[in-house]
Amino acid sequence: MTDRIEAAAAELRPLLQEFILWARENAPGSDSNLVGSVVLWHRLIASDNVGRWKRADLRTVLLDRMPQVVEDPDAAADGMVPAVRAYLTFLSETDRLAKGSSSLKELLAELDDLEDDFVDAMEDIVVDQDEYEDDEEDEGLGDFEPFADELAELPTIRLRPDAELAAATRAATLITKARDLAVWVGSERRVGETSLLTDAEITEALAALGLPAPTAGGKALADSVPALWNIWNLAIDLDFLQPEGEDTVSADADTADWPFEEDDDALDVWMAGLHSIDYGDPELEDEEATIALSGLTRALLVRVLLATGSKPLAELRTELAEAAAEYDERGAEAWAAATAQYGDPLNPVLDWLAGYGMVEVEHDQVRLTPLGMEGVVHLTDDADIELDARPAIDAMTALDLLSFSAELPEEEADAEFAAWMELREPDRAAKELLEAAAEDDADALVRVQAASMVGSLGEVAVPAWQDALDEPSLRPYAATHLAQLGVDDAPPPTQADTHWLILDMLTISAGLGRPEFVSSLDDIGNVPNLVNLLDVIWKVPHPHLEELLEAIGKAHPDKQVGKAAKRALFKARSTHN
Predict the structure, then answer these.
(1) 277, 171, 181: which is closest to 231 by C-alpha?
(2) Which pLDDT tens digit goes with each residue over 59-83?
(3) Residue 223 class from Cβ within 10 Å (0-12 exposed, 13-18 middle, 19+ buried)?
(4) Does the pTM exceed 0.85?
(5) What is the rounded distance in angstroms from the CA atom of residue 525 to the CA atom of residue 490?
(6) In this structure, what are the phi and psi dihedrals at residue 397, rounded to the nearest 5 degrees?
(7) CA distance linking residue 418 with residue 428, whole number of Å
(8) What is the pLDDT of residues 239-249, one digit of tens each?
């Protein structure tokens, strides 16, 4: 069966790559990654012709086979049928739906009929897993979840500024190779049905990338150059290659301009290809052995991260060999095969990560680069695992400081502020903090945090407070602090200023939950005082005024307050809208 799977997978690879290109333009909402297993099993159990699809094939593959082989039933339930719908449309529109097939209309109708049954089958798999699996989930080699507790306990990770990271992306050799391949592809290059490129084109492409030609063997040339196809796929991930019509592909108009000058543009490109790290996993002659080592690149990254960014290569090799044997019954065999093929199973992993700018290997020590640390933090976040990751102090902007400090315990926030202040003159720091707080007048928490920090600086902050008088969202704080400092000619705080401060306080407490919100309303005063306040506060052009008035009407237990809040809300909507 393994040989048949390998042969079918090799036969389907060019067609699936063309579908991926087609789908980006014609079915952008579909998940083309979900099609591969459906098409493979269709070829293995339903039809010897990959282009011949009958209505019965859909039930055979989707309802009989997929429940037995699907890896992620939740993802399949959400997207597999739409993905197959897009694939069948692709076959029809590119004249690949072979003679003897049902019509596209009949196939799509059949998909509609079986979709509910398919979703139910996927949900049954999830229920079975919940009922019969151990509490410990059967994690894959590259999953981060088993390390969630250890990751959460890591010391604070400091991330470098965008300018430094963007400079590193420009030096990533794999992105340069992806650009060179796309430039070689040029405009409207035809791609084939059995192989994306002809043997002659493959030879040209290898030369353009500086990749060695494979030694003569029994396999077709297209099946002997996985490195070329990995770079081809990376070029697609980076949007350097784009589909042009049904059977052509072209370099994007901006591709030749890489490396891009704007830091944001350079980082966007690098982030678009971050998940290409999976291309670093070893590719072996045996498909099942390849699968056994899938996730090896991610497994290496998480272990280096847990070692706070640097770990001996020998230790990694030992740990990962043991992990491969633990996670898959063929893991040890696959590790031995990768050793025979690559000399070290980690060689393709490290080559890809180094080419993408994420690791450096020196004196048999594997180290995450700043770009690598940024990438692993993003991958960890994708896995819904929280890390304490913050910008480095010397790279932290005032807005960074305010945003992070608002979420930290007071003592820790004070320490961040003190370290940040050591790198700045107090008057300049005050100006930066207030300018950052003025960027979003809807962010009351950041505004209060900035006012507290700048207030702690004393008289040196007077010029910054005076400048802040011109910012409507900061004027109440500026007027209050200038009055407290006894500054001559400073405008005294007005009643509207006081009301703005109250609304900021209520905004923050509303975000903490109903009990905290009601408690903050009680702090304002008794029911008559609160009603009097509501009778005038509706005039303040605060960004959260209406939602706060609506929340007061729903949350406060006193009916008199509720009625006053509703009257105030009506007046506010009539006036401010």
Answers:
(1) 181
(2) 988 998 899 888 889 989 999 999 9
(3) middle
(4) no
(5) 29
(6) -80, 170
(7) 15
(8) 999 887 778 89
Query: 398: closest CA among 350, 340, 446?
Result: 446
Cα 42 from Cα 62, distance rounded (Å): 9
Whose structure tokens read 């791609």?
191
Strands 359-362 and 365-368, by their bridges, are: antiparallel
Q: Looking up tokens 């509910």, which residue turns up?
A: 116
The predicted-structure confidence for 220-230, as pLDDT tens digits, reads as follows 888 889 999 99
Classify each residue of 450-466 as buried b or exposed e, where b means 16 or more C-beta atoms within 10 Å of its C-beta: bbebbbebeeebbebbe
Bigger pLDDT: 30 vs 387 = 387
DSSP 8-state secondary structure symbol assigned to residue 360: E
Q: What is the mean pLDDT of residues 259-263?
A: 96
For residue 465, what are the contacts with CB-CB under 8 A and spacing of at least 6? Answer: 430, 434, 454, 477, 478, 481, 482, 485, 487
For 325-347, the pLDDT digits (tens) are 999 999 999 999 999 999 999 99
Q: Are strands 248-251 and 241-243 parallel, antiparallel or unpaired?
A: antiparallel
* pLDDT tens readout for residues 181-192: 999 999 989 888
Q: What angle do CA 319, 323, 327 make, to 5 degrees?
A: 180
Q: Which of 34, 32, 29, 115 is nearest to 72 (CA)?
A: 34
- Cβ within 8 Å of residue 486, ≥6 positions away: none
Question: Which range, of 9-23, 358-372, 440-454, 520-534, averages the lowest pLDDT?
Answer: 9-23
Most confident of 17-21, 39-43, 252-256, 570-574: 252-256
Q: Sign of dihedral through CA atoms 222, 225, 229, 231?
A: negative
- Please work out, in degrees rounded to the nearest 5, the angle formed at the alpha carbon of residue 110 by the alpha carbons of 105 and 112: 95
For the chain, the 3-state helix, strand and coil shares in percent, each to the nearest 5, are: 65, 5, 30
CA distance 297 to 248: 32
**Helix, strand, or coil here: 389?**
strand
Q: How far apart are CA 20 and CA 269, in angstroms?
A: 19
Task: Tell me what pLDDT residue 451 has.
Answer: 95
Q: pLDDT tens digit string along 128-137?
A: 544 434 444 4
Burial profile 420-431: b = 16 or more Cβ within 10 angstroms, e = fewer: bbeeeebeebbb
What are the sequence ranges of the domains in the chain?
Answer: 1-134, 156-392, 398-493, 498-574
Task: Using the predicted structure, report yes or no on whether residue 363 has a pLDDT greater than 50.
Answer: yes
**What is 153-221 written as a DSSP string?**
TSPPEEEPPHHHHHHHHHT-HHHHHHHHHHHHH-SSEE--SS-SS-HHHHHHHHHHHTPPPPPP-SS-G
**Mean pLDDT (the chain, rounded):** 90
Pick the closest to residue 149 from 375, 408, 385 (CA basis): 385
Contacts of 380 (CB under 8 A, 6+ apart): 144, 151, 302, 305, 387
